[in-house]
Amino acid sequence: MSERKTFWPVECEAGEPDLLVCMSCLNEVFKRKVPMPDCPACHGVSTYEAFTLEAIRDWGTDPLIEKAVRANAEVEQPVPSTPALGLELPAE
Ligand SMILES: [Zn+2]
Questions:
Q1: Ligand 1 centroid – CA 80 distance (Å)
Q2: Confidence band, pLDDT 50/70/90 cuts, at residue 74
Q3: Separation of 35 CA from ligand 1 center, angstroms?
Q4: Cα–ligand 1 centroid distance for 20 (angstroms)
């Protein structure tokens, strides 16, 4: 990691789509944040739209799905009382 990326936080309601995908290159996905000032892959501005992991699994490419899964697991959140999705949790 040579430089630290800067992100805008994106507020998402619980249960709402919270994975932000670049609709220009379909190559970057971040959870509840978008890179600033532009997309690191295609340098598009304001190209990010929110999707659920399920939606991304539906139409995304394998690398995008992999990134989405990683982004989804990366943010630590208070554990909800009921599992929201049938996601596999890291075995730690
Ligand atoms: Zn992009």
A1: 32
A2: confident
A3: 10
A4: 11
Q: How many whole angstroms from 14 Cα to the centroid of ligand 1? A: 25
Express each pLDDT in 13-33 by its tens digit.
888 999 999 999 999 999 999
Q: How far is the CA of 90 from the centre of ligand 1 (A)?
A: 28
Give me ligand 1 centre to Cα 2, in Å.
20
Q: Are 53 and 85 in contact (CB under 8 A)?
A: yes
What's the CA dihedral at 83, 11, 66, 52 to 10 degrees?
60
Q: 50: which 2 tokens?
A: 């929110």
DSSP assignment of the chain, as one string? --S--EEEE----TTS--EEEETTTS--EEESEEEESS-TTT--SS-EEEE-HHHHHHH--HHHHHHHHHHHHHS--PPPSS--S-PPPP--
